[in-house]
Design goal:
The protein has about 280 residues and is mostly helical. It has one domain (about 20-140, about 150-270). Helix content is about 45%, strand content about 5%. The chain has a two-stranded antiparallel sheet. A two-stranded antiparallel sheet has the order 3-4. Strand 3 and strand 4 form a beta hairpin. The longest helix is centred in the first third of the chain and has 23 residues, at about 25-45. The protein is globular and about 65 Å long. The termini are far apart. Bound molecules: FE2/S2 (inorganic) cluster. FE2/S2 (inorganic) cluster binds near residues 119, 209 and 210.
């Protein structure tokens, strides 16, 4: 436990703390940076995001970074069949300097949710802006600091980006279902398991969101009124509170898993890895 009296009034990074306070901002900063670097690279590839073992018909593995497929560019290696596109083939007006990658069109949605998450804000303000780097450690002093009421006021959109995230949980759950078929034949592969776990972890993160907790339990003076029995709403709120108390854990495992799911589909689609499955190919 660090008390306010332990804070040094000295120079940048000075503190009376003797523990390894720097470890958390270090690993969270590097960990998230690695995720952003991989995601950016994968987003610009535009290929190897789909695998169905060459089978036509219902089913296949779709990278979560590319789902939903709003448009699909034809004749690209590792791309999904056109009937998976929501709006058809790739638009002709797309600027030639920007890669024709379906991921570019959708990743802002889930990223807007993560980047405005209360937990993410905490760690990236500490790790990247050192403002401050940890409790009771002197950081970069900010004159005229206005918190999230001025420059960072957009962070308050988090309660709305929650609805985007909820939509992605539904879409990625469907992709998990889709991964259980090849050419319309039911089966299961390592990729199916990965793509089914993915929306479960994302749901654990999304349903533990502070904004969702407020949605389920906010504005309630009494959960057991008027008949003294706990309401259904109270039960939901307790479940959300359980997830909420482990929000950091869900944040990290869901983030790492979604990147791993993309990587797995990419490796299998490009022929570098063999998917072990019941379809026999
Ligand atoms: S507070 Fe983290 S997702 Fe909402």
């Amino acid at each position: 436990m660090v008390t306010f009296s332990q804070q040094s009034s000295g120079k940048f990074l000075s503190t009376y703390r003797s523990d390894k306070w720097w470890f958390e901002p270090l690993w969270t900063g590097l960990g998230f940076l690695s995720f952003v670097a991989y995601t950016t690279w994968a987003m610009f590839q535009g290929d190897y995001y789909w695998w169905s073992g060459g089978q036509e018909g219902f089913g296949g593995y779709l990278s979560p970074f590319y789902s939903p497929l709003l448009f699909i560019k034809e004749a690209v290696v590792g791309s999904a069949p056109m009937d998976h596109s929501w709006f058809g083939s790739w638009p002709g007006w797309w600027p030639v300097l920007i890669p024709a990658s379906p991921a570019i069109l959708i990743l802002a949605g889930p990223l807007s949710f993560r980047m405005t998450c209360y937990y993410y804000r905490k760690f990236y303000y500490r790790a990247y802006f050192m403002s401050p780097p940890a409790c009771a450690v002197s950081g970069i002093s900010q004159k005229n600091y206005k918190g999230e009421t001025a420059l960072l006021v957009f962070q308050n959109l988090h309660r709305y980006t929650l609805y985007i995230a909820l939509g992605f949980v539904v879409i990625l759950s469907y992709d998990g279902f889709l991964s259980l078929f090849r050419g319309g034949e039911f089966g299961i592969g390592i990729g199916s398991i990965i793509l089914i776990i993915n929306p479960i972890l994302l749901a654990g993160y999304t349903f533990g969101c502070h904004a969702f907790r407020h949605l389920t339990g906010g504005n309630q003076d009494c959960f057991t009124c008027p008949n003294g029995k706990p309401t259904f709403r109270h039960m939901v709120w307790r479940g959300v509170s359980w997830l909420n108390s482990r929000h950091i854990l869900w944040a990290w495992i869901s983030m790492l898993w979604v990147a791993f799911a993309d990587f797995y589909v990419r490796m299998v689609s490009s022929g570098r890895w063999i998917d072990i499955n019941t379809w026999g190919f």
